[in-house]
Amino acid sequence: MTAPTPSAGPVAGGAPRRDILDRLDALRGTDLPVRGGRTMAYVYDSGLDGAEELAAAAQARFAGVNGLDMTAFPSVVALENAVVERAARLLGGGPDTAGTFTSGGTESCLLAVLTARERARRTRGVTAPELVLPTTVHAAFHKAAALFGLRTVSVPVDPVTYRVRPEDIAAAITPETALVVVSAPSYAHGVIDPVAEVAAEAGRRGVLCHVDACIGGWYLGHLRYADGLPQPSAFDLSVPGVTSLSVDLHKYGYTAKGASVLLFRDAELRRHGWFAHASWPGYPVVNATLQGTKSAGPLAAAWAVLEHIGTDGYTELSRRVHGATASLAAGIAALDGLRVLGRPEASLLAVASEDPALDVFVVADEIRADGWYLQPQPAFDGSPANLHLTVTAAVAGEETVRLLLADLAKAVERARALGPATVDPALAEAAAGLDPDALGPEEVGLALSLAGIGADGALPERMAPVLAVLQALPPRLTERLLPEVVGRLYRPEAGGPARAAESGPEEG
Ligand SMILES: *Cc1c(COP(=O)(O)O)cnc(C)c1O
């Protein structure tokens, strides 16, 4: 009898609960922290005691409930209506406003585009739909165009303010335009596009206009209730011409991940994005989102946290975030060698260098050693290399802001002494000459080793040299290489610390 090969062999079960949870905790030990405000991208911490625990308890109660069938689980309809109503009331909705709860900002953006494409096709006979996008919109809209077959029309933004110009949008609209998108605010620079002017241009031409308020909507909406603070320019559904809006609850709603709302002018618009199917032998299908089976856990968690924090609570959180962002922006501007890009109107900062001897990506590597994560944003189309900071309520409080500014000042000094990460110009030129569509495995391996990425996909400790290479490559080549890097990480045979224990003849 041949022994089973280890990779195909049976897996030992029955590990004790305590062991399993200890192993999960050990895995988390290598991650960035999700609480405390030092990870300034990807995570959102309200800093409030009990909010996260409440979300976890609500999530556990609804984890097994399936939002796929609202007739079997009416609780899902009740919770979703309550959450959507809340978002609509905050963000300029009226009696006709309709909405959908989705798994996140990307899904909200995808559905906004899909809905617009279907409406353009069905009501205007558009056969080659176009999506008009400022160059600063979130990547999710390019994903939507790629998935749903729309042609993107990119509109450059003002090189100083990073806001799109309404006349440039107007010039980009054609009879084939299905949707125009603006950001409130943009992820990269935290600035708000001229929503009212753009929506008016779109509306005048009978074209839909989506406001991507994924990251800033909940924050800016509540900031309006905070007396005495500067008010954001109008950006929501109350603006004439705005036909849909996305707002993520798992960002400044501080709810559990997997929570966003997509609002529509009315249910007649919303229905174009739904999928219904009765031509198969199974159950009749109607999906408002991209998922089939979907856990009601994130919805229940979102509802619970919204009920718990409430309008006054969110207003106070917005006030704190505003204060911390303003203090950080002022402190950073006062640091020699750094500047804040544009005039951020929300809670996001893009910090660039104004000194050729100072590489912001080296600053990011340096300050990471002090426990801060600032997110590198490579140079693109007039936007210089910079560091992104998402300021959440956990950053608020003079102590954290003071610590960050002090650590940043020291990191800047160390980065200056180290000098910028550089790329051999000859290598960069050779790489730039590669045709992304014709790369074989050898060229891929070569390009990755140039960036310091090994055959196992392991990233080097310091990211500045990798980012320097990445920045020197044409974006299309980078887009060819990124999946190769990640593909080297996701290999079952690579095993790793979470590998299942095997049982076989040897183990008995
Ligand atoms: C975060 C974000 C998205 C995408 O949201 P996910 O929740 O990450 O899928 C879209 N637009 C903007 C402006 C964002 O900041």
Automatic annotation (TrEMBL):
<dbReference type="InterPro" id="IPR015421">
    <property type="entry name" value="PyrdxlP-dep_Trfase_major"/>
</dbReference>
<dbReference type="GO" id="GO:0030170">
    <property type="term" value="F:pyridoxal phosphate binding"/>
</dbReference>
<keyword id="KW-0663">Pyridoxal phosphate</keyword>
<dbReference type="GO" id="GO:0004058">
    <property type="term" value="F:aromatic-L-amino-acid decarboxylase activity"/>
</dbReference>
<keyword id="KW-0808">Transferase</keyword>
<dbReference type="InterPro" id="IPR050477">
    <property type="entry name" value="GrpII_AminoAcid_Decarb"/>
</dbReference>
<dbReference type="GO" id="GO:0019752">
    <property type="term" value="P:carboxylic acid metabolic process"/>
</dbReference>
<protein>
    <submittedName>
        <fullName>Aspartate aminotransferase family protein</fullName>
    </submittedName>
</protein>
<feature type="modified residue" description="N6-(pyridoxal phosphate)lysine">
    <location>
        <position position="251"/>
    </location>
</feature>
<dbReference type="InterPro" id="IPR015422">
    <property type="entry name" value="PyrdxlP-dep_Trfase_small"/>
</dbReference>
<dbReference type="InterPro" id="IPR002129">
    <property type="entry name" value="PyrdxlP-dep_de-COase"/>
</dbReference>
<comment type="similarity">
    <text>Belongs to the group II decarboxylase family. Sphingosine-1-phosphate lyase subfamily.</text>
</comment>
<keyword id="KW-0032">Aminotransferase</keyword>
<keyword id="KW-0456">Lyase</keyword>
<dbReference type="InterPro" id="IPR015424">
    <property type="entry name" value="PyrdxlP-dep_Trfase"/>
</dbReference>
<dbReference type="Pfam" id="PF00282">
    <property type="entry name" value="Pyridoxal_deC"/>
</dbReference>
<dbReference type="GO" id="GO:0008483">
    <property type="term" value="F:transaminase activity"/>
</dbReference>
